[in-house]
Each structure stands twice: as structure tokens, then as C-alpha cells.
Amino acid sequence: MATVLKANNKGLNDKWVRRIGIPLVAILLLMSSDIIPVVISPKMLIYKIFRNIFYVFCYWESNRMIVLYMRSKYPDLKDTSKRIAMHIVVFVVFVLVAGFLITVINVNLPQTNRDPFLSEYKDMVLRSVLILGLVTVIYECAYYFGLYEQSLYESERLKKESLISQLELLRNQISPHFLFNSLNALITLVPEDPQLSVLFIQRLSNVYRHVLNYNGKNVISLETEKNFLDDYIFLHQMRFGENLMISYHLPEKLDHLQVIPFTLQMLVENAIKHNIISKRKPLAIDIRVTKNFIIVSNNLQRKTSGVESTNTGLRNIVTRYELLTNKIVNILATSTEFTVSLPLIISQE
């Protein structure tokens, strides 16, 4: 049922539900009326069946338009209570107005007996509540369970993307290449500057501790991510020196801003991995906050050989942001610069 009544870009895919439901509800209403079908003439029976079908059709289609409007106004699972509350208000008004109009028409049509207007109106309102209540419950339940099913699916996708990100991060951090470069820099550093060697080991330890502490989180504060990035960049700057330049343009207070863990690290890692870094061609990475984005950009001087780009990290970042925030990560590459704009997540605490 949920898949049959699922909303799409064109409306509701409920054609067969309406074709079967409208005549079925019309017959059930006739069976529940005071007039037993077997005691009236066949001609009057056919008339009442078609009249009921017409009424049910009008009610069903009108209520369906209300359902579509409420879904467009309150589309998310978290808006369910608002959607139901507003639907009840519109439902009551519609039943009273539609019941009155149909009663006016109904009392002027041929019938086997004729009740007073108020009695007819009361009966029509009760029947309207029965019809619309049944239709509304069917649509709302189908939509709710469809949203719930979708939220479970998105949650599973997010978990999968998070696992992919963790594997990608761990592969980058614990890869023989990264570890070899770090240890090689440490070996060179120990005899020259033992005190700086201790600091290098501490920073390396901080990087791995951060990976272990935050690889299961969906979001972390920008300040925490920056502290991790400082340790990570320090290790690379021991290797590249002044040829790797990092500049920050961030607000003083970062505790209310959040990002997805390791995204900044991934972008810096990609810049270091895919660009030439030398005295003649230093790599400059700029990290700044502009409006609702944190922007990471670097001058573009791609390596011509030795590095294969799969774009796995970028695809992972884009997908995780779409799932968590419904916002788009902007990626812009020109002949001289590569820029990625990450939507900032504002803390609700």
C-alpha cells in the first residue's frame, strides 16, 4: 500500500486504489443506509449506486487535493504532527461546507422518502466523516510508512558512506606511504633536534587518537576538526617545510559551527596528493568561512604522473553532506585553482 500511494514528482501513484476504492466505498455506504437494497426497485437501486459513486468521487478527489497540498507544505517525517493537525482543521471545514452543499442538492433529487433538511444534513456530515476519514487514514498511513521506510534507507546509506569514509581515512593515514614518510622524517629529525622530535611524535599520536575517537561521529565541531587538521598539517610541513603553506580565515568563535568529521583533512590530503610541492612551485591551501560555507581552495599544479585519481574521497564527502544536510557541496576547478565549498552545520545546542 505504501508503494502504491507513494508521492512522486507528478503527484500520487494511486490510480488503481481510486478505481477500486470509490465504487467499493459507495456500495458499502448503500449497504449501511436505512434503505435495504433488496426492498427498493432495481431502477432506484441503480440510481442510488451511481449517486453514491458520484458523491464518493467528489469527496475522494477533493480530499486527495488536500492530501497533496498538505504533503507539499509539510513533506518531512518530522512534520507529521503538523501535517495531521492542519489536515484535521481543513477536514472539519471541508466536511461542514461540502455536506451542506450536497444536502441542498440531495433534498431536491427524487427519493423514496424525504427527511427534514437538518436531519439530512446531519446524516450527510456523518457519512462525509466516514468517507473522508477512511480515505485520509489510508493516505496518511501509507505516506507515513513510506517516509519512515525512506528514513531507514537513508540512515543505512549514511552508515555505509560513513564506513567508506572511515576506511578511506584509515587507508590514507595508516598506509605504508604515509607511515614511511612520517617515520623517515622522524629519523632525520631525531639527531638534529630531539625536542622537535618529541613534538613530532606527539602530533602523530594526536592524529591517530583523533581518528579512533571521532570515526563513528556524524558531525563534530569545526574547532575540533581544525585542531586535528593542525596536527595533520604539522606532519606534512615537517616534510615539505615552507613549500606547503596553509592559511586560515575563520571566525574567532567556532563552537557553534559543525562539519562532517575528516572532510577538511580529506580535502587537504587530496591537494597534497595531486599537486606538485616544491620550492619553485609551493602549494598554498586556503581555508575560510564565508556565509554558510567553509571553503577549501588551493592553487592548481597537478602532478603529471605517478598519481591515479579515483575521486572516492570527494564523492564520499558529497554524498554524506547530501544525506545529512540535504545541501550540495560545490566543487569548482579552474585552470589555476581548485575549490570545494562545504555547507556549515549550525549547532542547535
From TrEMBL:
InterPro entries: Bact_2-comp_sensor_kinase (IPR050640), Sig_transdc_His_kin_internal (IPR010559). Residues 166-244 form the Signal transduction histidine kinase internal region domain. It comes from the Bacteria. One of its GO terms (cellular component) is membrane. The keyword Transferase applies. Keywords: Kinase, Membrane, Transferase, Transmembrane, Transmembrane helix. The chain crosses the membrane at residues 20-40, 84-105, 125-147. One of its GO terms (molecular function) is phosphorelay sensor kinase activity. This is Histidine kinase. It comes from Pedobacter westerhofensis. The lineage of its organism: Bacteria, Pseudomonadati, Bacteroidota, Sphingobacteriia, Sphingobacteriales.
